[in-house]
């Protein structure tokens, strides 16, 4: 919003200034305030070990949220991510424990399947002209069922040491999942900000009609976004399975809510076209920090749910307000 | 014309289906299983025990449907079973009260129902042939007593800080296990209990434990109200490097195969065995006996006594045999 026309800038009121500032650093500010608050209330909060804990806990949701940012930027939504986590996780566990134990296959096949499911979500919703909400509601159920089918109703446990590195390994002092998470944030940011692909995503999300008229192949971009999300959900499935040392049947249940919340709290608009992956990073961290801080304080989980819900509504409300002031 | 053809095909198919199921019903018993969710290892195990018993008794078709831990789904599953004309229903109600109308419908259709593991609200105006279950409160007491004994061994008196990972808020077993556990613990003023729910899930167990490890300087014991949670907690303890798993007394609940393996390896100290296989097969047998020979069970409630499984009595656990 730095490129507001000069004439408008002169009439900027205090309230307006607040929302312009909020647009840029609001969520970061909120995050810092929450961190300082927890730091005062419970000194262990800023213990480096605890900080690594939080980022590692967040990385499982965060990796998916990075992918979800692409889809939401295009005005879409994906509810199937939790089921993809479970399904790809159980496939990975299957290759580890039941089908030969190849490290290569237990990583590559789940990632391909994840990407494939994402492609399917994108393909059906664009070519079939269906709202992705409905399509992914369907695939959410399909792949939860497929998980049970493959696992025959029981978790598959006992991964190899090399596979366990994905979720439990460290590179220096940094947990490997954190590297995967931050790596995917950086790559996504580069794609969104520095490539034609990224610019077109904002263009389509901002105004689909205009994008279509200017010859952008909208469907292709949408399908690509869903494929990226599917792939990253599978990556999250690998991290979770490796970390728990078990392909769990209930894995990923309810993840879609945390993922969408991270993206929205991070300032990406559900209408599409606005936001970015750094916001998502902060959004995911904020959710993780709140849960961690309240746990450290020994607060009942009921309160955690209430706090989280309130923050989601507040974030979207702020988003709406800043839009109103921008167009005013 | 096309539409008519399609309708015709559908009618023929439906007719065949009806005839088929009628023929089956005459030849053998059809028994419906409705469990909260087969995606939980526990119920998968119950289902398997029932199927084994059915194969052993012979001439019984078992229909098992997935309710996804959703009460509304479970009710409609039971309604579908009534329509389908099952001879009896083996039920694990998701919730004590909400399934009552479905059981009423079963009563009306004169289909006998036996509940396993979880009960229906006691004063509900419905007829349940028998309830076979575990004593979750007693299981909680036994887990607590085990920890108390271990701490006494260590310090000469029962004292220390214990983490209690409770189950899904509101779920019957979560309430009962915690009640039994705290009933014993209350008697020891030098024991501090820090409780938090981990929703019976392994990932939550791990996460909550990580946070406890940060916020608690000394942890003497951890009680997980199911094995999934204690397995997650053990991963967290091992990864933290702050506590030695061998030093911390860890107790789970359910005696899952994985937990038994950890007991054998010495990482987990104990788990509570409720003999789910025995529960399920006993319940199933009662139902079949009633249907075939019209024999009513001696009592309306059969509780199977839970046992503490440690390294010394591993062979007593049901699942280790498999």
What gross morphology of chain B would you assign?
A: elongated
Termini separation of chain A: 14 Å
Return residue spans of chain A where pLDDT drops below 50 for at least 5 consecutive residues. Answer: 1-8
Number of strands of chain A: 4
How many H/I helices of chain B?
10
What is the C-alpha radius of gyration of chain A, as a whole number of Å? 20 Å
- Give the structural class of chain B: alpha/beta
Integer average pLDDT of chain B: 87
Main pleated sheet of chain B: 6 strands, parallel
- Rg of chain B from C-alpha positions? 23 Å
Biggest protein-protein contact in the assembly: A-B, 34 and 32 residues
- Which segments of chain B are poorly predicted (pLDDT under 50) over 5 or more consecutive residues? none
Please identify the structural class of chain A as seen in this structure. mainly alpha
* Strand percent estimate of chain A: under 5%
Please count the beta strands of chain B (DSSP E, at least 2 residues each). Answer: 12
Q: Indicate the percent of residues in helices of chain A.
A: over 70%
Q: What best-fitting shape of chain A do the alpha-carbon axes yield?
A: globular
Assess the beta-strand content of chain B as a share of residues.
15-25%
In terms of quaternary structure, the protein is heterodimer
Walk me through this protein's architecture.
The complex is a heterodimer of chains A (328) and B (322). Chain A has 328 residues and is mostly helical. In chain A, 76% of the residues lie in helices and 2% in strands. A two-stranded antiparallel sheet of chain A has the order 1-4. In chain A, a hairpin with a 2-residue loop joins strand 2 and strand 3. The relative contact order of chain A is 0.19. Residues 1-8 of chain A have low confidence and may be disordered. Chain B is α/β, with parallel strands linked by helices and 322 residues long. Chain B has helices spanning 2-27, 41-57, 71-84, 100-108, 136-155, 172-185, 202-215, 227-240, 257-265, 276-293, and strands spanning 29-35, 60-66, 88-91, 113-116, 130-134, 160-166, 191-197, 221-224, 249-251, 271-273, 301-304, 307-309. In chain B, the strands form 3 sheets. In chain B, strands 2-1-3-4-5-11 form a 6-stranded parallel β-sheet, sandwiched between helices. In chain B, strands 7-6-8-9 form a 4-stranded parallel β-sheet, sandwiched between helices. In chain B, helix 2 packs parallel to helix 10, helix 3 packs parallel to helix 4 and helix 5 (136-155) packs parallel to helix 6. The longest helix of chain B has 26 residues, at 2-27. Chain B is elongated and about 75 Å long. Chain B starts with a helix and ends in a 13-residue tail after the last strand. The mean pLDDT of chain B is 87. Classes of the chains: A mainly alpha (328), B alpha/beta (322).
């Amino acid at each position: 919003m730095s490129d507001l026309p000069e004439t408008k800038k002169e009439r900027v009121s205090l309230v307006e200034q607040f929302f312009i500032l909020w647009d840029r650093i609001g969520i970061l500010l909120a995050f810092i305030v929450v961190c300082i608050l927890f730091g005062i209330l419970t000194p262990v909060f800023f213990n480096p070990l605890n900080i690594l804990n939080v980022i590692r806990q967040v990385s499982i949701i965060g990796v998916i949220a990075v992918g979800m940012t692409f889809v939401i930027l295009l005005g879409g939504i994906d509810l199937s991510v939790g089921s993809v986590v479970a399904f790809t996780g159980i496939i990975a566990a299957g290759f580890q424990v039941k089908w030969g134990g190849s490290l290569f296959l237990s990583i590559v096949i789940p990632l391909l399947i994840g990407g494939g499911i994402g492609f399917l979500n994108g393909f059906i919703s664009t070519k079939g002209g269906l709202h992705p909400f409905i399509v992914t509601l369907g695939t959410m159920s399909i792949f939860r069922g497929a998980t049970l089918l493959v696992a025959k109703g029981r978790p598959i446990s006992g991964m190899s040491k090399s596979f366990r590195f994905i979720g439990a390994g460290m590179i220096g002092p940094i947990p490997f999942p954190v590297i995967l998470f931050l790596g995917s944030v950086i790559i996504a940011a580069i794609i969104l900000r520095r490539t034609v692909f990224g610019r077109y995503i904002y263009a389509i999300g901002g105004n689909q009609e205009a994008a279509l008229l200017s010859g952008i192949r909208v469907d292709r971009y949408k399908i690509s976004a869903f494929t990226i999300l599917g792939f990253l959900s599978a990556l999250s499935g690998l991290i979770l399975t490796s970390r728990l040392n078990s392909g769990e049947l209930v894995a990923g249940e309810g993840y879609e809510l945390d993922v969408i919340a991270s993206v929205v709290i991070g300032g990406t608009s559900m209408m599409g076209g606005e936001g970015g992956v750094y916001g998502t990073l902060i959004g995911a961290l904020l959710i993780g920090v709140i849960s961690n801080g309240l746990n450290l304080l020994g607060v009942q989980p009921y309160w955690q749910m209430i706090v989280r819900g309130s923050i989601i509504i507040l974030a979207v409300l702020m988003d709406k307000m800043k839009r109103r002031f921008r167009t005013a | 014309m096309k539409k008519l053809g399609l309708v015709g095909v559908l009618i023929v198919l439906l007719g065949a289906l009806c005839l088929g199921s009628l023929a089956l019903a005459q030849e053998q018993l059809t028994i419906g299983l409705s469990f909260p969710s087969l995606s939980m290892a526990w119920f998968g195990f119950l289902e398997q025990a029932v199927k084994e018993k059915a194969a052993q008794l012979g001439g019984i078709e078992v229909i098992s449907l997935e309710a996804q831990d959703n009460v509304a789904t479970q009710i409609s599953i039971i309604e579908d079973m009534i329509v389908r004309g099952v001879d009896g229903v083996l039920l694990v109600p998701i919730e004590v009260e909400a399934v009552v109308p479905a059981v009423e419908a079963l009563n009306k259709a004169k289909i006998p129902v036996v509940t396993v593991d979880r009960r229906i609200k006691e004063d509900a105006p419905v007829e349940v042939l028998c309830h076979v279950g575990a004593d979750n409160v007693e299981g909680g007491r036994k887990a607590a007593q085990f920890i108390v004994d271990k701490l006494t061994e260590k310090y000469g008196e029962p004292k220390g800080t214990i983490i209690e990972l409770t189950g899904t808020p509101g779920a019957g077993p979560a309430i009962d296990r915690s009640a039994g556990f705290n009933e014993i613990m209350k008697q020891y003023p030098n024991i501090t209990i820090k409780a938090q729910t981990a929703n019976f899930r392994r990932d939550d167990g791990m996460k909550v434990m990580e946070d406890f490890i940060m916020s608690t300087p000394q942890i003497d014991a951890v009680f997980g109200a199911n094995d999934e949670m204690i397995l997650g907690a053990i991963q967290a303890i091992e990864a933290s490097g702050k506590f030695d798993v061998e030093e911390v007394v860890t107790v789970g609940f359910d005696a899952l195969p994985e937990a038994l393996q950890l007991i054998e390896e010495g990482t987990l100290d104990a788990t509570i065995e409720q003999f789910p296989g025995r529960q399920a097969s006993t319940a199933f047998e009662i139902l079949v006996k009633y249907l075939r020979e019209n024999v009513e069970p001696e009592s309306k409630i059969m509780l199977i006594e839970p046992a503490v499984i440690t390294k010394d009595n591993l062979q007593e656990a049901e699942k280790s045999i498999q």
